[in-house]
Amino acid sequence: MKRNCKNLLARITTLAVLAWLTGCGQSHEKQAAAPLKPPIRQELEKARPQALQLKPVQVTENTRQTYQWYCAQCHGIEGKGNGINAKLLTVPPRNHTKAEYLETRTDEQLFGAIKFGGLSVGRAPCMPAWEHTLDEGTIHSLVQYIRELCQCEAL
Amino acid sequence: MILRTLAFLCLGGFLSIVPSLSYAGILEDKDCGSCHRLSVEDTKKKFSGPDLHFAGNKFQPKWLKQFLQNPGVIRPAGIITNPGFLQGPPENLPPHPSFLEKDARTLANSLTDLKISGQPLEPVIIEPLSKGQRAKIKYKFERTFSCISCHQSLNLAGKVRGGLSGPSLVNAGNRLQADWVANWLNTPEVYTAKSRMPRYKMDSATRTEFSQFLMTLKKEPASRR
Fold first, then answer.
1. Are residue B25 and residue B105 in the same domain, yes or no?
2. How far away is chain A from the Cα of B90, in angstroms, using its nearest Cα?
3. Residue B157's pLDDT is what?
């Protein structure tokens, strides 16, 4: 009798443990199976700092003149990274006509590099910050101009 | 007695005007105005040389005199407004005329009189910098503000390095006035309508540090700095 009781208790315990384990697994499976929803664009824009929000801008004659006046000193007249300072810099200026690198950078990263300087985006300190020289609209249009030069978009 | 006083005052006034007339005269005689802006009012013409209407604020008189006797290249890429500025160092840049000692002295005195009145004054007290302080400021000069990308400068071992598009700062300590450097960094628009240099918003302490650092840049053996 005692033995039967012990066997029954053992069976009940085993079943309970199995039920609990299975339940955990399901729950776990449920968690794993939960789709990783990519954040929608609006959410991303909400999360971005105000200054880095993308604005639809056009490349104008003013953009090209600004590039020639300031950027061409290092990046060259045609943006090939061969400006008059280029050979004397520790790190060569970016060639804006090469898509290979620029398509790996987002527009926000290019905007940040122009506005806050190379160091701000983990690049060379040779690139100064233009935040007190150029307004944000001009910087956005320069980003678009660089996209024109490289004929590329961010991947 | 009154007549004598009036005569004295008139003569005194005349004497005080005479030197500036002769200074202005020599600038005209040597035709400096054909390449350099010598007056605040002269905004219409395009000049092929740097603006000198604030030469008295900017340059050290001793350096001016030496330069006029033995001119050197300060802007290896030429003047920023000249066509062809971005094409590389101009190979056939006409040399600046050199002058005899007497004329150089009169010209330097004349240029020292050219000042912008009412410019914001930021007196800089020049204190000797320790090697550690120089290294710290040099770090800011090169990495935080990227000045080295456009200006030639001296590294801590006295070697020339840096870009060409801005004026060379290799001899800035002999050429520029410390107060002017701080004022330029604070309010460049007082001196030029449009520069190719980024505008910075430095605090007063950083401007002073930069002035002091530039004053250490001299074309002299490192041991004498």
1. yes
2. 11
3. 81
CATH of the domain at B147: 1.10.760.10
Q: Decide if A132 and B200 are in contact by the 8 Å CB cutoff.
A: yes
> Cβ–Cβ contacts within 10 Å for residue A141, how many?
22
Q: Over 60: is that where the pLDDT of B189 sits?
A: yes
If phi > 0 it is left, if psi is from -120 to 50 it is alpha, else beta; for residue A59 that is beta
- Contact yes or no for A75/A81 (Cβ under 8 A): yes
pLDDT, one tens digit per residue, over A60-108 is: 999 999 999 999 999 999 999 999 999 999 999 999 999 999 999 999 9
Q: What are phi and psi of A85, to 5 degrees?
A: -90, -15
Segments in A34-150 forming alpha helices (H): 41-47, 61-66, 72-75, 99-102, 107-116, 136-150
Q: Chain B interface, mutation test: which of A65, A66, A71, A73, most B Cβ atoms within 10 Å?
A: A73
Would you say B141 and B148 are in contact if contact means Cβ atoms under 8 Å apart? yes
- Asked if residue A78 lies in contact with residue A86, where contact means CB atoms within 8 angstroms, the answer is no
**Per the domain annotation, does B6 fall within a domain?**
no
Give the SS3 label for residue B150.
coil
Q: Which CATH number fits domain A50-150: 2.160.20.60, 1.10.540.10, 1.10.760.10, 3.90.1070.10?
A: 1.10.760.10
